Amino acid sequence: MENIFSAVKDVFWRVSGGYSVLAIIAGKGLLCFRDPYGIRPLIMGRHEATGSYAIASESTPLDMLGYRRKEDIPPGGAVFIDLEGNVHSKRLVEREPYPCIFEYVYFARPDSFIDGISVYETRIRLGKALIPSLSDLDIDVVIPVPDSARPAAIAIARECDIPYREGLVKNRYIGRTFIMPSDGERQKSIRRKLNVIRMEFNEKKVLIVDDSIVRGNTSREIVRIARESGADKVYFASCSPPLKHPCVYGIDMSTKGEFLASNRTIDEIEEFIGADGVIYLQLESMVEAVNDGKQTNRHFCTGCFTGDYPTPVTEEMMREIENDRLCSRRC
User: Fold this and answer.
1) Which among 219, 246, 249 is positioned nearest to 40, based on CA atoms?
2) Maximum mean pLDDT: which of 83-87, 202-206, 243-247
């Protein structure tokens, strides 16, 4: 047992980055471990009726399979389950956790809990945190970009006493467009992904709420169809700050030059997507919203917003990562 934990600890010292690992050791059992900063989530569940265990990156699949007792694997922690079903757990490295904040904004399902925090409740708080920045706008209706921005849009509409409407309908057979490899593929998918309910836009001043703005292609297309549907004004609110830096922890979130906000002012972003106003949530407000009020000193990885990563990332490493991504898209 100690040999297994010793090997995992050696991985922690050798491998710098964000990762959650699940491995079957033939004839021995099941091993899982989470990087020392807890950048990527990992959760274990136990099925009371069968006594079996399951490991996942979110709580939702465990709920669906009937695993009621759940616990998050701590950053720098490892769990080994032997063939007799005995659980051996140990935290091998103690560091300040920096879980990815974008899990709560976009990546995770709304019905999941990550490190004890409800993703759904977090997105409601993100919407409420946007409200002070909307006070000067004359808004007739709040419309979310489905699906991740829906809780935030509902919170804004309810708190501001503004009608909430579903003006955009999502085609569930199209994948996440922001990680598609080429602009052409993304543009085609955006047009197929969303259809509009025209009456919800016609002759109205519309606030469109989305989780984020990455390249701006989706935002620009949404604003265009809103105007074609007769909207008098179109405001675009993002539940996160401007994305300016790539993720170096396994999420293909563009190279730095592809981010819309990397070298543009707010006025230039408004012009690019064609909106009458673009509203971003401030970084401090986002962090406060994700904190559930019980862990107010908790830190998060905000590298895609600030360029500050919890692990060492040199300029040379960044160039290599970007070159690899560009090469893979050309190939």
Assistant:
1) 249
2) 202-206
